[in-house]
Design a protein that fits this description.
homodimer, mainly alpha, Methane Monooxygenase Hydroxylase, Chain G, domain 1, Neurolysin, domain 3, 64% helix
């Protein structure tokens, strides 16, 4: 069996290498590639994607996994090898159910869909995107139908991003969360608004960049195994665990984009850099799920980066870099970066309103997939729900239903992971504080070793060995639960807005 | 047969895509990759290389080429399709003669060889590199033995870089060149030396970079299909014809590195961007040979960039950018950038001495390959020949036999292409001037459209359709010939040094 495990590791290393090759091509595409390179890059990515897919669904891999099943059952179920067999089998069994024709159709539809979406958004004209979204929804329905064992068609989609998570679970979590968040926002809206005008003024871009670098270096980002570049839509990508790169954007007259964006991406990257070396090139080096990944980015962005202790340490330094903040006291700065204001745009939303943007999208996705809402009615329904949840109505579709790229790329089933990530971040945080009560004091001193060490040990090193619910349960003692997040929000905003 | 041609194009597109994927990985490795990424990158490159090799030597490809042979014979022999079959057959027949074991051995030996060379050079200790060079020479001998049809073992190596070029031809060309160049250098050494001290002073790096960009933009470099980045060892690389990137380096206190290096790489890139679109993704998009490629880089670097008319246009602008050159008249500047001084280092050599560095290397390579010189005796022989050809003796092996990376990477057979490129550049130039007598006047006005248009039409668009000798013959009416180069050097330096 050792020979077979070796063969499995070799097969997985090749698939992983193809996947990281594709990631390098994608990184370059979004950072440095000249416009002329687009068509060629499409060909390269399609080829690498096909080669990876062929290997991920090969009968030889299936045979190997079958042969290894009894052996894996004899091992400690939490051992690397048992998990390797389990996770690979899971992915293999999903992948082989999808005919190549569907893979090709989906790739074509989403390529065209993204092009149409760019045009539709720029013209704020949903009709341009509508036939493409109809096609994509139909293909997602077709995809779900390849997996009749799932209780709900949306389960099949969600499962690709959150292994073994059920739509019913997510709904239940969000049902527990929604009224509390709506109530909180209502309470805040009755209070005097905080001032954040000082964040909207010119800030030298190079100095912003350097400040971001200073912060994430203190967080523990390993520059020997990563780098930072600019990208229009920031992202983090790992080419294996020893080359995990972040990207960021710098707005010349708004400080938040760079500061919180950089910390967010660094959170993802710390996860990627912290996976156990023995999981590299196995397919388990990518993390447990999107929600668990997002828990890491949101923890460093929000629980660390938007906290008072963090700025007690870093604000004097920020004022040194930007003397124009000299007249803004810490308390005012802290309130400003935590201003709550319902808005149309998800990516600009504050912590108190963010999850409501997600819930709206999840409901619309499920309704489209169930066929209960026709694509043509989606813009109107969007605006109705925005009014209901956030009390605002987008002035046009560009700032409404067309704002996000996800659906055009076929990523239906993805959005909820953002909100789940927020919840998990606080669950983990509560446990981490319980284990290390002095972490907040350390943050006040600009020290992050204890926090990072705890995350490394409890979350990062496991990579993709555990399903998200399993991992959260293992670390915190309970499954994903909205209560800690509600507690956190309520406490934080009660202080800021004197509720 | 149309179906078979289509199949051939599809097979070649896949091989070409794998090759450009490898090129992206290599570009990133040399520009942006953090140190931690090295091991993973090695795995990725090895995989992509293996996949490309498998496809380039597959029996299916061989069958397709066999089937197409009679059809290709019925076509215009200069048509794209006839050439596609011819060149692919040629490459295929070479590739299948090399056993996979040799490919693997060679990859291992050169990986270790390069590591050892870096250490050997930094310590100036040939003994560290010696066993590796012995292994590499043995492997190159083994490689040559796979091709018993060649007259001389060195032919098999040279042929990989210069299709169908024979060692005897290169020797004959160099034999015609050597005495003339030695004589010229001797004459120059009897004259008062020109002053180039003004080139060695601090020059703001950003301003240098911007000046280089300004120049190559005027040359006609298409930024929509390319970009420029920094690299320790500048190179040009194309990922297909619509993404051809250059790299350069900027020395803070010496102007030549950036200026002439940037023009040199731009010359390569103009070639890459100028290949006919219908040759993209066929394996013919890469140019005729290394020598023809080098003729393009050297033409823009030397025949344009080190000419008086060029600086009659650009020198006022350079003085504007660098006021410290305000007191240096144009004539003095022109002489300074063309200073002849025999030196130890090939890459720093001027036009008059450069080819002698190459001849020395060619002779040593042939002698090693023939077994007439043992590797252990190479450093001493190197120094003897340096004294003989250039009148200088390197102070140590780091500045002598260990200065170039090529042998450590297995590139024995490569060096002569540099000198051949110099010769071809002037042959093409003479013909171009004959066709367009006003090009020099245009350059004096900072205009390069006619020159670039001529190169596009006569050289670039053909890509790799023709063998180098064929192409030179087709364009100039004669094969590669040292006479034009000797004429050019003699005229240029007679004026500068008043010979």
């Amino acid at each position: 069996m050792e020979e077979k495990i070796k063969q499995l590791r070799e097969a997985l290393a090749e698939i992983s290498d193809l996947s990281t090759v594709g990631a390098v091509l994608g990184w370059d595409q979004q950072t440095y590639m000249p416009p002329g390179g687009a068509e060629g890059r499409g060909n390269q990515l399609a080829l690498i994607g096909r080669l990876a897919h062929e290997r991920s669904t090969s009968p030889e891999l299936g045979k190997l996994l079958d042969d290894l099943k009894p052996y894996a059952a004899s091992l400690d179920p939490d051992s690397d090898e048992a998990r390797l067999v389990k996770v690979t089998t899971r992915n293999y069994e999903k992948a082989v159910r999808v005919p190549t024709k569907h893979v090709v159709d989906f790739a074509q539809a989403t390529t065209l869909g993204q092009q149409a979406w760019v045009e539709a958004r720029s013209k704020s004209d949903f009709s341009i995107f509508r036939p493409h979204l109809e096609k994509i929804v139909a293909l997602r329905q077709e995809y779900a139908a390849f997996f009749p064992n799932f209780e709900h068609p949306y389960d099949a989609l969600l499962d690709d991003f959150e292994p073994n998570m059920k739509t019913a679970d997510v709904k239940a979590i969000f049902d527990g969360l929604r009224p509390k968040q709506v109530e909180l926002i209502k309470a805040i809206s009755g209070k005097p608004q905080v001032d954040d005008s000082f964040l909207h003024q010119p800030f030298d871009e190079k100095k912003q960049w350097d400040f971001g670098v200073e912060v994430i270096t203190k967080f523990g980002y390993d520059w020997n195994c990563g780098r930072e570049d600019k990208a229009a839509h920031p992202f983090t990508v790992g080419f294996g665990i020893k080359d995990v790169r972040i990207t960021t954007r710098v707005a010349p007259d708004f400080l938040n984009s760079m500061i919180f964006g950089t910390m967010h991406e660094c959170g993802h990257a710390l996860y990627g850099q912290g996976v156990a070396p023995e999981l590299d090139r196995t397919g388990l080096e990518g993390g447990a799920s999107l929600a668990v990944h997002e828990s890491q980015s949101r923890m460093w962005e929000n629980l660390v980066g938007r906290s008072l202790p963090f700025w007690q340490h870093f604000y004097p330094r920020l004022q040194e870099v930007f003397p124009q903040l000299g007249g803004v006291p810490l308390d005012k700065f802290y309130k400003g970066i935590n201003k709550v204001q319902p808005s149309y745009i998800r990516v600009e939303a504050d912590e108190a309103t963010y999850n409501l943007h997600i819930m709206l999208r999840l409901e619309m996705e499920i309704a489209m997939l169930e066929g209960k809402v026709a694509v043509k009615d989606v813009p109107e329904l969007w605006n109705v729900k925005m009014k209901e949840y956030l009390g605002v109505t987008p002035p046009n579709d560009a700032k409404g239903v067309l704002q996000d790229i996800h659906w055009s790329g076929g990523s239906i089933g993805y959005f909820s992971t953002y909100a789940l990530g927020n919840l998990v971040s606080v669950q983990l945080w509560e446990k981490m504080i319980q284990d290390n009560p002095d972490v907040v004091e350390q943050i006040r001193q600009g020290k992050f070793e204890t926090l990072l060490g705890w995350l490394r040990k409890n979350v990062h090193r496991h990579g993709g060995k555990f399903e998200p619910q399993e991992l959260v349960q293992k670390v915190t003692g309970s499954k994903i639960d909205p209560a800690p997040y509600v507690r956190y929000l309520t406490k934080k905003y009660s202080e800021i807005y004197k509720l």
